[in-house]
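Minimal example, chain plus flavin-adenine dinucleotide.
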Amino acid sequence: MRTAVVVGAGTAGLAAAGALSRSGWRVTLLERAERIAAPPTAVVLWPNGLRALQSLDPDGGWTAIASPLPDGGVRRPDGQWLVTPRSRTGAGPGPAAAHLEDVYDALVAGLGDVEIRTGFEATTIRTGLRSRPAVSDGHSTIEADLLVGADGIDSRVRAAVAPESVAVGSGFAAWQAVIPGFRVPSTAEDRCPGGETLGAGYRFVAIPLGDHAAGRGGIYWVATAAGAARPESAATQLTLLRRWFAGWHEPVGALLDATRPEDLVPQGVRELRPLPRAYGFPGGPGGVVLIGDAAHAMPHHLGQGACLAFEDAATLRAVVADAEPGPDLVAAVENYSRVRQPRTATVVRQNRRMSAVVQARGRLALRARDAALNHMRPRMLARSLDPSHDWTPPE
Ligand SMILES: Cc1cc2nc3c(=O)[nH]c(=O)nc-3n(C[C@H](O)[C@H](O)[C@H](O)COP(=O)(O)OP(=O)(O)OC[C@H]3O[C@@H](n4cnc5c(N)ncnc54)[C@H](O)[C@@H]3O)c2cc1C
């Protein structure tokens, strides 16, 4: 039986482990934490991510856990429209938002016969053209035909196969929170059709999760500010956020007021520079592949990280579907890299353009940004800035 070891049980690793297991692989999933647990946030599933999930697990119940995302447009802090909301055109699923815990639950439910080993921190990765890939935590070593590096932005697997690619700060910090439905103030509920607001170096995105989202509802928000991660306590950071976003149109203030320090998930935003030179590294009867943030971590401006991870998993499943260990699987590992590299490089480029929009500060830069945004919407909806548009799962 073909064997795979997947390092990391985040969205990428869970999706890949389940997909390989359901295709007849014997899979071991390694996670350094003591239990598999989602951060208490939410995620936007763009059409590419939804298509990938649907192809990975048609019975995953994705539409049951995700609420359609309204297009709330883009505003300035004073409430003036930069981009007015438009109703969506085109066929196929629109974007949807889901509690990340629900996404993890659905992915865990799809793991089937995967052997899960938590509390296993991969410290040593063995690769080589002639040897089977292997991973060790210093106590035990696990070999497999295929080693999948899904261990996030600080990936140990990537460090072994693509050391040229390192995580660097993107010049932003981000704060996320989900305000549970029962705590959403009625003023915020009325005034939160969803949407984003752009200030000078600051951005606030609010997304209603709706009753559809496993009946839990609530509102998810993400604030971004130029600068590094803050060292203060969550309570102090919340106070800072309330100060920075004071005077912004509602419901921004109401949502920050309704947020508790324990809801807050602060982090410095980082990205990989450069991207790894490849995502597939042949070795022994198969080799090593990188997926998710381990392969292409980028700032969250386009909200594509998890969606690309699901694309990676769907592509990996397809390219290794009929590959037996040996030359076939080696070729599949190379093929995975050939397919995923250009796709993710394009999204990274689109994301950098969006970084410039979010980072704009100073009167002239803001005027130029606002003028550009006024003209950008039709193009944003078209292919140039919408990476979710044209991706379909490989057969
Ligand atoms: C503010 C913000 C908003 C975002 N919004 C969106 C969005 O709306 N839509 C979207 O698609 N994406 C979004 N993203 C991006 C998305 O969250 C990430 O791209 C995605 O979670 C990456 O998943 P992953 O499984 O690759 O990595 P991770 O989630 O980092 O998972 C890696 C796993 O590997 C484990 N691990 C790490 N090292 C080891 C080791 N040595 N041994 C064993 N296990 C290990 C970790 O414990 C972890 O469980 C957002 C990101 C941010 C910061």
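The CA atoms of residues 86 and 289 lie 40 Å apart. The two ends are 23 Å apart (CA to CA).
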